[in-house]
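Now for a chain:

_____
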Amino acid sequence: MNKKIITVKDLQNRDAKCIVWMPDNENTARCILQISHGMEEHIERYEDFASFLCDNGYIVIGSDQVGHGITLSKDELGYFGEGGYEGCIDRLHCVTLKAKQMYPDLPIVLLGHSMGSFMARGYITRYGKELNGAVIMGTSGPNPALGMGKLLINLITLFKGDRAKSRFITKMMFGSYNKKFDGEGVYQWLTKRDDIKTAYERDEYCGFGFTLNGYKGLVGILGEVSSPKWANDVPKELPILIVSGEDDPVGDYSKGVKTVYDRLKEAGIKDIRLKLFENDRHEILNETDNEEVYKYLLDYLDSLI
């Protein structure tokens, strides 16, 4: 595998660190996978998965999301800025355009994980016709508390400003995620693997906490993709895989994930698939059965090209 780091400017003229992972012989590449990573992490956490795909003839590309990554100062982490979640979607599209410029003859598939899956779901209603497929991983179904969450975020912002952080909002959003899992630490819900949880806790660019501005963006994109209208706006010809761990609290332990699948199926998406990995938590790429997960995703991607 070869790797290079490039800079992509988004529509707000912000620099985004973007990584391109390539097979040793770039000319053998068959497809591009673009990754939209999750909340409070960064694109380099996907290097092992990218290496696996490169060994199997794929180019993998991804940038740090807005408000994420080592190119930022600490006070910018968790802050989306004036563009909100639309700025995140715009950045993803800029990366897609860069990938198409670099490899104009290759098909491209977008994979979004967790918060990145929310952004990917917003992306495909805007730019889905430019893709050859989409993988929606570790996503969430509709949440009836979103309206109240938005109200509280706006209220606290009035007093503290949008760059402030709120333990109350963080607890409201994620406080219940560990309830069904044994063990110490606040990240039991991520994976059963202790090495991954330890690495995440030690990584200063993971788990850094969102600003109120970031939470407003998160609630905003969740509201958009949780609307019944969302599925009807997805291109009917776009192949989509919905994939998650069965024990992922983000997807309400599969209930919310199945709702997303059902809505897309009812909307007439012609090639829509659902896969739930038994006993897996949120980060299926970092779970104890990740080799099985890798192989399943490779087989799915191969079926698209």
The mean pLDDT is 95. The first strand starts at residue 2 and ends at 9. Residues 27 and 191 are 36 Å apart (CA to CA).
